[in-house]
Design goal:
Strand content: under 5%
Number of strands: 0
Number of helices: 5
Largest sheet: none
Radius of gyration: 27 Å
Number of domains: 1
Shape: rod-shaped
Structural class: mainly alpha
């Protein structure tokens, strides 16, 4: 039985048509989207835990690296978990729903690291300026004592 909302491959003209052709209520896609949201929440909530974020970053990049192998496996076994065969040889589907969201999470992690770095550098500079002021004030007070 063919779904009446099913879009033939030759009917796909642009990216929005492609996204519309995906059956987003498929349970495994709901789990995948939930995984991406959970990953984003984890990245945000662990922003002050650098070691954990590095491990998360490396795991995410590893998943992207192996996405071609995942795509090949999924293309061979799609009937086990999906209602439609999405896994094309060019990897458009896996790139769209798997790799791009993961890479966006990686960019979020890098942005967090850059922000934290700027905050640390600003605190360091303030501490250096305070130290310099203390040294200058102690030198000035010593020179005033010697003058008296």
């Amino acid at each position: 039985m063919v779904d009446p909302n099913f879009i033939e491959v030759n009917e796909i003209k642009d990216f929005s048509t492609y996204l519309a052709s995906i059956e987003w209520k498929d349970p495994w896609l709901i789990v995948l989207v939930s995984m991406h949201l959970l990953t984003t929440a984890t990245a945000v909530l662990t922003r002050n835990h650098g070691t954990f974020q590095i491990v998360l970053f490396l795991v995410l990049l590893s998943l992207v690296y192996f996405s071609e192998s995942i795509n090949e496996y999924a293309a061979a076994n799609w009937r086990l978990f999906s209602r439609q065969q999405y896994f094309d040889s060019n990897g458009l589907f896996i790139s769209t729903v798997f790799s791009v969201p993961i890479l966006l999470n990686c960019m979020l992690l890098i942005g967090t690291w850059l922000y934290n770095s700027t905050q640390i550098m600003a605190k360091l500079k303030v501490a250096q300026l305070k130290q310099k002021l203390r040294q200058e004030s102690s030198i000035n007070s010593m020179s005033h004592e010697k003058a008296d």
